[in-house]
Amino acid sequence: MNKQLLSVTGLILAIILFVSFNIVVNGNFKSARVDLTEDNIYTLSDGTINILKSMKEPISLRFYYTEKAAQALPSLKSYAQRVQELLLEYQRASNGKIRLFIMNPEPFSADEQRADQYGLQSIPIDGESDPLYFGLAGTNEIDGVETIPFFQPEKEDTLEYDLTKLIYKLSNNNRKTVGVISSLQVDGEQYDPLKGEVASADGAKPWAMMAQLRQMFNVSVLPTDIRRIPSSMDAVVVIHPKELPESTLYAIDQYVLAGGKLIAFVDPYAEIDKPKKDPDNPMSAMLAPRSSNMEELFTTWGFKRSNTDVVADRKTATKVDFGAKTDYQPIDYVLWQKLTKDNFNKDERITSALRQLNVATPGRFEILDDHTTKITPLFSSSNEAMLVDKRVVQFRNDPVALLTKYQPGTISYPMAVRAQGEVKTAFPNGAKTASGEMKKMPGHLDKAKKDIDVIAIADVDMLDDRFWVETQDFYGKQLAFNTSNNIDFLINAIEDMTGSDGLISIRSRAGFSKPFYKVIALQRDAEKRFRTKERELQNKLKETQQRIARMQVQRSGSGKQILSAEQQKEIAEFRLTANKTQQQLRDVQANLRKDIDKLDAQLKFFNIGLVPILVGLLAVFTGWMRIRKRNKARSQQ
Q1: Who contacts 82 (Cβ-Cβ below 8 Å, separation ≥6)?
Q2: pLDDT tens digit sequence for 270-280
Q3: Segment 173-189, tens digit of pLDDT
Q4: What is the model's pTM?
Q5: Gyration radius of the chain's alpha carbons
Q6: Whole-angstrom distance, CA of residue 197 vs CA of residue 343
Q7: What are the residue ranges spanned by the domains of the chain?
Q8: Topology of 176-190+205-273+288-306+361-380+412-514 in CATH?
Q9: What is the assigned CATH class of domain 46-168?
């Protein structure tokens, strides 16, 4: 009886302890967790911690979340908890500089009115009378306001960056000034800086790049014929400097010599540069130049961009569907490339944390002999890249031919370089005026006041929206989702060169789709064999047609072709060869599928089956040890 009572009492105490433990944990350790992700995306990065510690003035964060409306959306409710827990971590790490308020904006309440005033997004939920608010408004002591209108679950991988950027913009009043010079309409037509959009709906829209730059810096668009760059510019970004006047190049030269920071995007063949079509001369658009360079300046700084070729790379190629050209199947387009960590300079802060850059028909740089600067490649092609004459791309671009004729090389070509050091002016006599005479500007410099700092990139298309960002309509608002680190590279470069590097370590943490490298390698190897066989078949077809053409062809009065026995035999042999080759092609594809299925089975076994098997073996071993121990005890009795 006593043993039974003790057992019941022990069970009750165990239940009480279990409930008490859960209450304590839920109340005091809600945000405690072990982060086992590859890049610790659920842990505040050192960059965020440093920004929080450097805050001088307090800021207020108001998290608006309609809890009742979110009950019907379990996944969003879970994400809201994740956002709230992360905000609490920010508050704890700020040493009291962040004041966090959790708001539940009920209908017709003051909180709902204030959320609307901040511009937060409310969305209707099916079956719920109340709209859902799920956003953040931040304010500082000088009436600065920054918001996240709605937390998109699809952007969870950028959550820390978005929050830290909001805090950084509120706590950092010393925004750098950046000038932009471009022969392209990067800012759209008739840009309205107050509205952040073009005045006419029919005009060219501003590039998404410009909106991103304006979030972080004070941006001024400078004319392409500028004669002197203001010293107030902390950095200048030159995009596709096609046919810039000598006076502008001279102004850039003097700006750099005076200590200004320059980032130049040039291109041997800029796909984004669309020449205007002339109805009277259809060939004019094809013949129009689409390249840009700053040869005089680059040569003085110790490097040059090749004018004759573009870089093709099978190892980093992007799969593209060209419709009928590729039988409506995606193939490796060797001129569009996804650069990954292996292509980046790991010793440079600008590129060390990047994950992916998308480039299109990129060029390359050559480092000159006897240069006085230190030239550092920032990102490069793989060591299997191939050079292609840019005229091939301009006049007869055939993606299939590029792939089948691809011959991997052994050299890695620099696509972006950084030049630092002492240099002299490229225009010792000044620049030509409108009248044709050479003239120096006031305060002309013959050599740099201090070491110059210049970055040059041999691709303009990487700034085009389609290569780094996608937009989605969300209840009437356009939301941008980054698909690569292209814009991060540019902003990192500006921040590193100007000394405002607060967000560099955080910006590139956002992950994109992680490819299955083994599967891609299998596919690429099989496709290579497939294309080789296909090319062999085409050559056989061409040779046979040429042999038949050389044979005597007789025609009857009806015009029908009469084939000799020799011709008929050759055609029959060719058809047999073609059928065998087609079967070989099918075998290649079947073997590809078998290899991928085999790899898939192995991964499933290791990820799903191995752990239960190990647990089962451990249980069997433990049971066997207990039985053995029990038998041993009995034998000793």
Answers
A1: 156, 159
A2: 999 988 877 77
A3: 788 999 999 999 999 86
A4: 0.75
A5: 32
A6: 36
A7: 46-168, 176-190+205-273+288-306+361-380+412-514, 521-554+566-635
A8: Rossmann fold (3.40.50)
A9: alpha beta
